[in-house]
């Protein structure tokens, strides 16, 4: 969720993006006093032993293996629990969560968003994938405001929408305000029996003007992926080439709410399921936008559903300020088109830049 610098974690296991290592180094302080003349005859063997002890202590301090270093050293968010005390804390939080579910001591908003379930069940399940499997490196979180409505607009890829989940977790864990990204999802998400209620509970809502404007107006951080299925279901040969952003509906919503638009660029998701073919006939029968054929699926059965462990980078760009416009500007098609195209070009150029910086697909 590694190359991403990890800081300290709070009681919910979320990372402080400005965290510093808590390791305490040891320093052996010598004395300026003259040696006692009565002990001037100390054997050279004893002196050598003292010198060896000092050297050993200094070595432990520098390497962080000394007892004091272990006691003061903090663990990063991707590290396993350091001791039994940490394990007890995790178990206590789990028991507290179960107690709240049994007693009904939790809240759900008008869109069905369950913060308690998201923070204590879904996010912990995704963190090992984020930190250790995709080794996500997050940049530009300072461009996301600590409060107030804002719209995050991102590229979409990877056959399955794992990029949306990783982006939401990056904001929750590493942004100083630990904000929840309220994702605008396609109609299909809410048509799947098991997926629909889970999507609602984790903060997703229907990708429509009404819901987007309501969330932005209420001061939420909203995420949208304008490429839709055209982006996430494109063939591997078209990787990192942005598809059409539609008619700019997300721009209109941001203009009406006066919310800044934050371009977000994800590199790494294109390679998790390299789509080399599309079983269109089967897709039509099942009512799906596509049925992907990858180097591993369907040939390896369920094992083919495992994503490849590519190296990810998520970068949040500088926000586009919309406060200079009135709500009536949302009805200006030329302005909407211009802002829509500007956001798309910003993400595309950032994609090219990040690809140049990446050493390889997997490192």
Description:
By secondary structure, this protein is α/β, with parallel strands linked by helices. The strands form 2 sheets. Strands 1-9-6-2-5-3-4 form a 7-stranded mixed sheet, sandwiched between helices. Strands 7-8 form a two-stranded antiparallel sheet. The longest helix has 25 residues, at 333-357. The protein has helices at 44-63, 67-72, 84-103, 115-133, 162-174, 195-201, 209-217, 228-232, 249-257, 280-286, 333-357; strands at residues 137-139, 150-154, 181-185, 205-206, 221-224, 261-267, 277-278, 292-293, 313-316. Helix 7 packs parallel to helix 9 (249-257). The chain contains 11 helices and 9 strands.
Describe the structure in brief.
The protein has 363 residues and is of the alpha/beta class. It has helices at residues 44-63, 67-72, 84-103, 115-133, 162-174, 195-201, 209-217, 228-232, 249-257, 280-286, 333-357; strands spanning 137-139, 150-154, 181-185, 205-206, 221-224, 261-267, 277-278, 292-293, 313-316.
What's the CATH H-level superfamily name of one domain? Glycerol-3-phosphate (1)-acyltransferase
Mean pLDDT: 83
Shape: globular
Strand residues, percent: 5-15%
The percentage helix is 25-40%
In the predicted model, the low-confidence regions spanning at least 5 consecutive residues are 1-81
Structural class of the helices, strands and pairings? alpha/beta
Strand order of the largest sheet: 1-9-6-2-5-3-4
Characterize the main sheet: 7 strands, mixed
- At the first level of CATH, what is the class of one domain? Alpha Beta
* C-alpha termini separation: 14 Å
By CATH, the architecture of one domain is named: 3-Layer(aba) Sandwich
Number of strands: 9
Order of helices and strands, N to C?
A: HHHHEEHEHEHEHHEEHEEH
Q: Number of helical segments?
A: 11
- Which value, in Å, is the CA radius of gyration? 26 Å
Q: What name does the CATH topology of one domain carry?
A: Glycerol-3-phosphate (1)-acyltransferase
């Amino acid at each position: 969720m590694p190359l991403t610098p990890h800081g300290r974690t709070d009681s919910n296991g979320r990372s402080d993006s400005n965290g510093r290592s808590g390791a305490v180094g040891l320093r052996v302080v010598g004395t300026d006093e003259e040696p006692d003349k009565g002990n001037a005859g100390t054997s050279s063997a004893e002196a050598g032993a003292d010198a060896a002890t000092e050297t050993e202590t200094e070595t432990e301090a520098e390497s962080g293996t000394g007892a004091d270093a272990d006691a003061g050293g903090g663990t990063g968010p991707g590290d396993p629990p350091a001791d039994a005390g940490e394990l007890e804390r995790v178990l206590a939080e789990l028991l507290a969560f179960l107690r709240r579910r049994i007693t009904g001591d939790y809240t759900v908003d008008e869109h069905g968003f369950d913060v308690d379930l998201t923070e204590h069940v879904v996010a912990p399940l995704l963190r090992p994938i984020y930190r250790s499997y995709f080794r996500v490196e997050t940049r530009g979180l300072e461009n996301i405001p600590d409060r107030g409505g804002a719209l995050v607009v991102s590229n979409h890829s990877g056959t399955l929408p794992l990029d949306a989940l990783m982006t939401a977790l990056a904001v929750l864990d590493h942004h100083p305000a630990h904000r929840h990204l309220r994702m605008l999802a396609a109609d299909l998400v809410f048509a799947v029996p098991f997926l629909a209620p889970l999507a609602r509970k984790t903060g997703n809502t229907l990708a429509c003007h009404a819901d987007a404007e309501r969330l932005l107006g209420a001061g939420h951080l909203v995420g949208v992926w304008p490429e839709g299925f055209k982006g996430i279901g494109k063939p591997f040969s078209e990787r990192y080439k942005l598809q059409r952003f539609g008619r700019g509906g997300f721009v209109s919503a941001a203009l009406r709410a006066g919310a800044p638009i934050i371009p977000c660029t994800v590199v790494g998701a294109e390679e998790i399921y390299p789509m080399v073919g599309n079983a269109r006939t089967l897709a039509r029968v099942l009512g799906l936008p596509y049925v992907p054929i990858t180097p591993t699926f369907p040939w390896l059965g369920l094992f083919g559903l495992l994503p490849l462990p590519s190296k990810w980078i998520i970068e949040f760009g500088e926000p586009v300020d919309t406060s200079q416009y009135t709500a009536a500007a949302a009805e200006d098609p030329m302005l909407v088109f211009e802002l829509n195209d500007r956001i798309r070009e910003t993400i595309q150029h950032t994609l090219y830049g990040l690809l140049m910086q990446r050493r390889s697909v997997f490192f």
